[in-house]
Amino acid sequence: MSDPAFHYAPIGLVELENRIIRRCNLQFARMFGGNEDEYRDMPLLRLYPSQAEYERIGARWLEEMRETGHYSDERIMRRRDGDLFWCRARGRSLTPDDPFRHGIWSFSDISEDRPMVELTPRERDVAILSCRGLSAKEIGAQLDLSYRTIEAHRARLLEKFGARKLPELVAKLSGMPL
């Protein structure tokens, strides 16, 4: 073992090349199931709930990485046994000119703080941007949707999460105590 700090870090760590796992640490393997060797050379796609999610998040990830060299979000991921869970992902490209080529990523299981609710990709986008404090008009502009469409998505989110008002929804989505 050449790097005990990487191996025993209390957070899931992976080294990616072109979205292929080259190595991971013990905590990452525990979080997703299995042992470290089982992840070597595994496409990250296998840990996403769907191909569509992999592509959607990858496009957003690439755009932000090109601008800043790093990326962070909270998303649904899939364990090797198929169970879905909320995960916080943070990454930094080691090759800013080609962000996917080589990077280091951390993954944290945040499912205890987040209810597992089935959301469409668009509802997930609206939820994430709402938690960032954007207004319905700002979210609409970012997603190229009308203000009314964003309000309809928010109404469905309120219902799904059993929230009465937007601040209560944001609190539930962000895992804050109510």
Task: Characterise the protein shown here.
The chain is an alpha+beta fold and 178 residues long. The chain has 2 domains: 8-109, Beta-Lactamase; 121-174, Arc Repressor Mutant, subunit A (Orthogonal Bundle), CATH 1.10.10. It has 7 helices and 6 strands; from the N terminus they run αββαβαβββαααα. It has helices spanning 4-8, 26-32, 51-68, 121-131, 136-143, 147-161, 166-174, and strands spanning 12-17, 20-24, 42-43, 70-78, 84-93, 103-109. Strands 3-2-1-6-5-4 form a 6-stranded antiparallel β-sheet. β4 (70-78) and β5 form a beta hairpin. The chain is globular. The termini are far apart.
Structure keywords:
alpha+beta; transcription; Beta-Lactamase; single chain; 2 domains; Arc Repressor Mutant, subunit A; six-stranded antiparallel β-sheet; Sig_transdc_resp-reg_C-effctor; 178 residues; WH-like_DNA-bd_sf; DNA-binding; 6 strands; transcription regulation
Blueprint (SSEs and pairs):
Elements: H1 4-8, E1 12-17, E2 20-24, H2 26-32, E3 42-43, H3 51-68, E4 70-78, E5 84-93, E6 103-109, H4 121-131, H5 136-143, H6 147-161, H7 166-174
Antiparallel strand pairs: 1-2, 1-6, 2-3, 4-5, 5-6
Helix pairs in contact: 4-6, 4-7, 5-6, 6-7
CATH architecture descriptor name of the largest domain: 2-Layer Sandwich
Q: Going across the major beta sheet, what is the strand order?
A: 3-2-1-6-5-4
Q: Strand-residue fraction?
A: 15-25%
Rg from C-alpha positions?
17 Å
Coarse structural class: alpha+beta
Sheet bearing the most strands, described? 6 strands, antiparallel
Say what the CATH topology of the largest domain is.
Answer: Beta-Lactamase
